Amino acid sequence: MIELGLTRIQTLLQKTPQTWKAIHVAGTNGKGSICAYLTAMLRANNISCGRFTSPHLIDRWDCISINDNPVLEAKFRHYEDLVKTRNDQLQAGATEFELLAATAFEIFEAEQVEVGVIEVGLGGRLDATNVLKNKAVTIISKIGLDHQAMLGNTLEEIALQKAGIMRAAVPCVVDASNPQNVLDVFESHGKQTGVPLIHASPESSGFAQLFQGTFEPHQVQNLTAAHEAFKLAYPQYAQSADILTPAIMNMKWQGRLQILDITSLVKKPREVLLDGAHNPQSAKVLADYVDKHYRVGHSPKPVTWVLAASDGKDFAEVSRHLIRPGDAVVAVEFGPVDGMPWVRAMKTDALLKAVPHDSLSSQHDAQKDVLGSIRWAAETAGDGPLVIAGSLYLVSDVLRLLRDGKS
Q1: What InterPro entries has UniProt attached to this entry (predicted)?
Q2: Which run of H or of E encompasses 242?
Q3: The sheet that has 258-261: what strands, in order across it?
Q4: In the chain, what are the helix, strand and coil shares in percent, each to the nearest 5?
């Protein structure tokens, strides 16, 4: 169950010190990548750091990392049990996400990290992560329409919820590529709360320009925001491009434009593009990448898609960006999400109805068979491009199949 509010987690953490400083990241798209870039910059300079992002990808504890390594299961369960016991004793009634965030903060304190890189779970103002006490800098990435039932029906309403992570006198880096009406919300809220705003734009960042042509435009934009925040938190290290550049080039962030070898799953040499694009804005970014890299040449081959979605998503708008005439689609439902029982997969018949099926070369309903959906797609695609997208939870299922050696 998702239930926004700070009272329950404040109760859980009332006696837990936060001796580490925090970099807090909100937004609709790009939050996870920004957190990953920041971690790479911190580690390149031997700064001890924790990272908390959501959702997890393979195991429930991999959303918490220390110095870019997922926390060990035994340590996670120890502190999770501590937090759950406290929740029972205090009758705090914390939600699953609040318990998880509190567990992360306990681990960061126990590991004596210098800085925590924290991704907002949902929104900002009332998100459990907004109990952070020592924010060094905040970041707000690209804003789009998502979770409207909880955050508002307009970009302005959603932006105001995200702006709730701002703190007086703590600088906030905002993605300058946001629409002007969104930037106006940030400016207004920043003035009201006494927050200095920094607009992150690749055009004014010499560091980001080093990656132009190598990274995709949205990646450069996210990197710019991360570097601006890093400069504010650690100005003494921010200009060391010779240290930061290789760290960024070697960074890996699963489930975002990830080229993946699935030979073990389909029993023949095969790569796929794996991406967690799950809303119209991220779908547009993925579509631009696919158009640029796969729909090229005089007679480009159609794309075969493996698609899933969370229930309630505007998948018609997502598929409008992704699907082109002649493409093939297999719809599938991702499995139960450990620790997030409120998440439900969209039924495959509903998903296929949302796809412009009249223009498809073929379609298939795999229902709950993720492995079967991949095998159908690989067979259908032949030597043409294959893309798995629509949900980070589907990404998790695919990565888990590969990790567990399913065949």
Answers
A1: Folylpolyglutamate_synth, Folylpolyglutamate_synth_CS, Mur-like_cat_sf, Mur_ligase_C_dom_sf
A2: helix 241-249
A3: 258-261, 271-274, 386-389, 304-307, 328-331, 362-365
A4: 45, 15, 40
Structure tokens at 102: 């509190």
HEC profile for 258-313?
Answer: EEEECHHHHCCCCEEEECCCCCHHHHHHHHHHHHHHCCCCCCCCCCEEEECCECCC
The backbone torsions φ and ψ at residue 149, rounded to the nearest 5 degrees and listed phi first, read -60, -25
The answer to whether the beta carbons of residues 256 and 33 sit under 8 Å apart is yes
What string of DSSP letters covers 348-404? Answer: HHHHHHHS-GGG-SEEEE-TT-HHHHHHHHHHHHTTS-EEEES-HHHHHHHHHHHHH
What is the spatial distance between Cα 272 and Cα 261, in angstroms, rounded to a whole number? 7
Q: How many helices (H) and strands (E) does the chain have?
A: 16, 14
pTM across the whole model = 0.91
- Using only C-alpha atoms, the chain has a radius of gyration, in whole angstroms, of 21
Distance from C-alpha of 390 to C-alpha of 392, rounded to nearest angstrom: 7
Burial 37-69 (b: 16+ CB within 10 A, else e): bbbbbbbbeebebbbbbbbbbbbbbbbbbbeee
pLDDT tens over the chain, length 407 residues: 567 789 999 999 999 999 999 999 999 889 999 999 999 999 999 999 999 998 888 999 999 999 999 999 999 999 999 999 999 999 999 999 999 999 999 999 999 999 999 999 988 899 999 999 999 999 999 998 766 566 667 889 999 999 999 999 999 999 999 999 999 999 999 999 999 999 999 888 888 888 988 898 989 999 999 999 999 999 998 777 889 999 999 888 888 899 999 999 999 999 999 999 888 889 999 999 999 999 987 778 999 999 999 998 889 999 999 999 999 999 999 999 988 888 899 999 999 999 887 789 999 999 999 999 999 999 999 999 999 999 999 999 999 999 987 65
β-pairing, 49-52 vs 115-119, is parallel
